[in-house]
Amino acid sequence: MCLNIGNxxxxxxxxxxxxxxxxxxxxxxxxxxxxxxxxxxxxxxxGQFTQNQSLTKKLAEVANTSKRPIYYYNxxxxxxxxxxxxxxxxxxKIAGLNPETGTANPCLIVLDYIKCMNLDHAGxxxxxxxxxxxxxxxxxxxxxYGIPVFAAVQLNRDGITKEDQSVIAGSDKLxxxxxxxxxxxxxxxxxxxxxxxxxxxxxxxxxxxxFGIGCQDGEYINVxxxxxxxxxxxxxxxxxxxxxxxxxxxxxxxxxxxxxNI
Length: 262
Description:
Structural class: alpha/beta
Number of strands: 9
Shape: globular
């Protein structure tokens, strides 16, 4: 999800800083190339694509034409104060500042994902207090520079059965200071009974929002997840399925008949 959003925004020419707490640059590059070329990840990672001329051609086209402004940085083991320093350098050196407002030019920061790296970083605080301070400082940073941050968090055990605000792991401030909190889960057998798999195999529940209405009770947005190619596409809501609307998402300024990449 983080990679799809980052790639989409970067493809618009808007610089994206991708901060990663788990994988490596090589791993993420393989996934990004797979997403852009639609060549399966395992074919890229093992080099099997070289045995298929059409796949080799696809990857060559990507190498020749794809120059997306995505800046990757692995932040594993770093204190969140270092995250903020990396973000600040990105704004100053890459995105730039608007001289009239003092805020950043259009850009996006993707944080994959918020967590306490180790208890040493928490110092005298409990883990939830450390994460709460992280959320506060990150929120203040966004306000100062006028930038959006798309951040992932983990769900707790309640997330297996529940789909409300109680499922976010770590700290209540992670929820209280965000503009939108959306849960992504696999669809259940009950979901499939009323909403076939071809409409989507995962779902987004827009739980808490500061702008708009979010999802109503029992409503979710379908996501067609092709994990073999790191690709996620947005489908219609399950409510639209029940009402028998066309298999497409409607946009105020641009009606599109096909599913759209997230």
